[in-house]
Amino acid sequence: MDGTGNPWYEADLAIRGDRITAVGRLAGRPANQIINARGLVVAPGFIDIHSHGGRGVAQNPALESAVRQGMTTLIEGNDGGSPVPLGPALDKLAATPTSINIGYFIGQGAIRRNVVGLVNRKATAAEIARMKELARQGMLDGAFGLSTGLFYIPGNFTPTEEVIELAKVVAPFGGIHVSHMRDEAAGILDSVRETIRIGEEGGLPTQLTHHKIVGRPNWGRSTETLELVEQARARGVDVTIDQYPYTASHTGSSALFPQWAQEGGSKALAERLKAPDMRKRIIAEMIILLRDNRGGGDPKNVQFSRCEFDPSLAGKTLADVTRARSLEPTFENAANAAIDIQLKGGCSAIYHAIREDDVERIMRSPWTMVASDGEAPIFGKASPSTFGIAASCARA
């Protein structure tokens, strides 16, 4: 399978050093070594378009989780997060001997944090000009495009029009736009429309990154999101999809908190939680998030994967933690337990809130590629998602 989109075909492959030198009927050609791969699949190295492998490559340059699954290129800087400026980080990466190629997007959220901060307001004309300058410099430094994390702060505070202005800067360089969309639950259709609009008005290819349908009330809506993609492509928009093949997502425990409450960062959130009326409002919205969104309808569906302040929490669920406080795992009690965890520094967590039918439907789309959303882990010390992409794809 040669990676061009053509059907598979039977052929011989000749390799010299690290290069393919011939493909075809090569019987009788001299070779120092012959590998009998009859009945197996030979393919070029895979590109992991949504990775966070760059953040740990200095500690784990072998990146076995990727290499052992045939990945030869990781793309970092996703979800709106990247170094700003990008050039020094790429220079440091180039000086690190790795087993794999690593590229970067320039992150819109990181740019906005650098210029505007973590405040929930529109950027001024001068700030937009500065952000466009940073996006342009990121492309000159070697970025492959612009990533947005409109679910996270400060990306969530960004009007669509502001993102489009940065997309217009990236487009002439041949860059693409990839987006962790603003809402992957009740607002999923509007989020897909927004991602398409950024590409259409920004003049560049646009991608729904780790596309999924979160929350029981929203299951099945992949039929509608895929239809929106088909309609956009029919009118000439280059819109594509990537996904990880799991029925769970993996991000910080902050995903259980409304974005407006996180304005200003962790210290500002802590101050809001001290005010009784504000805390009551935050808990009310957390209950909705646990019921209809990332919580998957039950606190047991939130499973902590890594907690630096208390490693013993790894593997336990929010329901477990709530019961350990001698409380029934109701949504309200679970919300209070999550608040205590967040105030101590937070954890990374696995959210079991996706249905298999949606995963498979998205995977079958001809416009979908598979990505890990994984880091550069050492085996046994990280979430298993990074190690299981190939096996999951084969099963699905």
Topology diagram in text:
Blueprint: E1 12-16, E2 19-24, E3 46-48, H1 64-67, E4 71-76, H2 87-94, E5 101-104, E6 106-107, H3 108-115, H4 125-141, E7 145-149, H5 160-170, E8 176-180, H6 188-202, E9 206-208, H7 222-234, E10 239-243, E11 249-252, H8 266-274, H9 276-292, E12 302-306, H10 318-324, H11 331-343, E13 348-351, H12 356-364, E14 368-370, H13 389-395
Parallel strand pairs: 3-4, 4-5, 6-7, 7-8, 8-9, 9-10, 10-14
Antiparallel strand pairs: 1-2, 11-13, 12-13
Helix pairs in contact: 3-4, 4-5, 5-6, 6-7, 9-11, 10-11
In words, what does this structure look like?
By secondary structure, the chain is of the alpha/beta class. It has three domains: 1-44, no CATH class; 46-247 and 354-395, Metal-dependent hydrolases (TIM Barrel), CATH 3.20.20.140; 251-351, no CATH class. It has 13 helices and 14 strands. The strands form four sheets. It has a six-stranded parallel β-sheet. Strand 1 and strand 2 form a beta hairpin. The longest helix is centred in the middle third of the chain and has 17 residues, at 125-141. The radius of gyration is 22 Å and the shape is globular. The two termini are 19 Å apart. Mean pLDDT is 93; it is low at 390-396.
